[in-house]
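During the second half of the funding period, the structural biology subgroup turned its attention to how the target accommodates small molecules. The most pressing case was magnesium ion, which had performed well in the primary screen but for which no bound structure existed. We therefore specified the complex as follows and requested a full 3D prediction, including the ligand pose.
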Amino acid sequence: MRTFLAILRDSFREAVDGFVIYIMLILSLLTIAFVACIGYQPVDAEGHLSKSIKNFAVFIPDKGESTAISAVPGVNYEATAIKVNGKDVLFDLEVTSKSDFGLGKAPAIDPFRTAVAGWLKKAYKSEKRKIPAAVLRGGNKGNTSDSTLRDLEVALAPDVSAEEAAAITDEQMVEFIKNQFVAHYGCGDVKVRRRSNPDAGKYVYEVEAINLRGSRGWAHDVSFLHWNIITNNDLPLGLVVHVIEDTIVNGIGGGILLLISVILTSFFIPNMLRKGTLDLVVSKPVGKVQYLLYKYLGGLIFITLVSAITVGGVWFVIGIRSGMWDPRFLITIPALVLSFALLYAFSTVIAVLTRSAIAAMLLTIAFTFGLWLVGYIKKQLDVAKVMEEGNLDTVSSIFDGLNNVLPRYKDLDKLTSKVTSEGAYTPILLRFQDMLIEPPSYVGVLGITFLYIVAFLGLASWRHSTRDG
Amino acid sequence: MAVIDVSNLQKDYGSLQALKSVTLQVDSGQIYGLLGQNGAGKSTMIKILLGIVRLTSGEANLLGFPAGTIEVRKRVGYLPEDHAFPGYHTGESLLHFYGELYGMNRPDRVKRIAESLDIVGLSKRGSSKIKTYSKGMKQRLGIAQSFFHDPEVIFLDEPTDGVDPVGRKEIRELLATLKDEGRTIFVNSHLLQEIELMCDRVAIMHKGEIVRTGTVAELTKTVERFSITLAPGADFPVAEVKALGFKVERDDEETHVELKPGQSIDTVLDLLSSKNLRLRNVRESKQTLEDIFMDLVEQAERGSTKRGVRVARAVGARRDD
Ligand SMILES: Nc1ncnc2c1ncn2[C@@H]1O[C@H](COP(=O)(O)OP(=O)(O)OP(=O)(O)O)[C@@H](O)[C@H]1O
Ligand SMILES: [Mg+2]
């Protein structure tokens, strides 16, 4: 342990000796400062609430736990008597429930109670159905031939009997409405009280939604310093924040961070392997391979620190500016470190084989670019396949194959994006996302990446230990 | 017990035989010199003992353990040739780093580092970055790092490389002190004079083989030789002296008489005076290690290329650089 810490400190000293570390820290601070300049202002309650409350028609069965979404025709939601107190909103929620209301075929019994009964059902009936992906994408050239169909989980119209609907209590309906605030706005602190029923087919609730205008589902205008960038929109806060987290921090920022890290650390191992330097350390009571691996870990921990500062800083300023403190964004730290671990392992093999920092740097950058390119082409092909643009089966299967056997550099990004979106999106938005984006498997992505890291390090260790001097 | 015990050691770098079959014992508490031309295999042997390079065949033991054992390396100090210290360290921080690798605790390190830097004359520059050091300062730091952790055996590969004459003398004195503390010191050098001045015992390595071992005195005193100059006009009685059983050689001015064990030069001098031959000069030409070295190299090279010999001379001539 002492040896490890000593080598770690040594690596750290090496890293902070050059100017690159300062560039890195400056870029990190610039990123944090940039994100800190972005402000989020909740849009006015009147218009937005009236518009967005209508979405309550859509609900998540199984008390909000299902992966599917559903709707019962015949229910309409209206907000009246809206009062705003800072970010809290007080209003009357009027639920109109009429069998002959709306577009679809509404159930014969009270549709609102039917919806609540369906929402309550544990084993809500949902099934995989083939849906033309092009339709989902909003394209209209999709046909229904099998190759363009994707498995989607779709909730069927609730299979609710008249008795079940009739048995719904007032408390259950209130619970449903409260859950709708969670599902649609991510707002969990809501007081709902039923008013005495004025007329049949209508339910009126007195709602006090605490911090509704600050919740992730509420539309926000976006400003940079004092300039307004996006105004009068329906973009929920969570979506905006996630774009920043995913694009600016994990995407661009992470890319630059990895690039600079690869450059900075490409010198570590070749320097250590220089004739005259290696002998000095290897003659000390440290194993040759142990030293190599510790040096590798040293670089990794160093990058962990830099990404932790950057991502942690961004998380903090986003929290301050938007009130969104979900820690899932912090998964970006281990994700960046894992990506880097792969690249650095590759760099280490090249360094041990060639002993050249330049070779390690350039080949690692080429390797990174290659992985990215395969991921990118695969993505384009996937889109083209869905849109049925020409016959791409051969090319496409080549790239699918490549993507399967190569470290999942791009897929790791997708996974990270998925986890961070879970920390930013409302449950409803997440269900929509899951319908459109097929996430790669954790086991595949993490497993293959780890395998590559182990293989690279194994090769480097073997070469290093059998080499004279 | 032999501190260093090497037998039939062989090392091939690919097709190149760096060590052919080296057998060598070094006893504790002495300064042992390994002398040889460039590429003789000196550094290779040290590196095998320290586990930096793997041996091809044979045996190499250090302090009773197979060479390269991590435990043993704690008890050993090493100054590599052509060492390159990481420039981002200061002298002190480097020694702290190495001290940690040796498992020294902090108070020990602080104390020993200050002492050692003082001994090698670097205490004023201990907190400067190594990249600002001169070559000689780096060498001094190298020596400090070889002994600051109180090792039993110290390997020095060309310890005086790049050090000025005053510094060299200091290093020799330092080595004597370290030896007096009971440590065994193994020095590699092609600088014959250095070895002669500081070593108790010497081994001479040539092309991967040990060709001679012994104390400096033994090696240099193998033959007693006298060079005699007579007064002008006098003729040296070569035949008569030869008849007495001496080996005689002549060149333009002098006659060289070599003694075999038990012979005395007095016998020759008596003969000369009995013949009324006037002496102008008699001197004992004690061989330097260099002469021995050259002889050995020449013997080894005889019949093969002459180039090796010239290289040997060039090496010998470098001793005053
Ligand atoms: N890593 C290596 N790979 C291949 N050959 C090597 C290696 N190290 C040394 N050699 C060769 O082994 C032979 C012995 O080298 P070594 O360094 O032991 O010589 P040396 O006696 O220390 O010479 P010098 O006085 O120049 O330091 C040389 O011919 C050298 O070229
Ligand atoms: Mg050498």
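Two results from this model are relevant to the next phase. Residues 288-322 of chain A form the longest helix (35 residues). Residues B 42-43, 81, 157, 188 surround magnesium ion (ligand 2) (CB under 6 Å).
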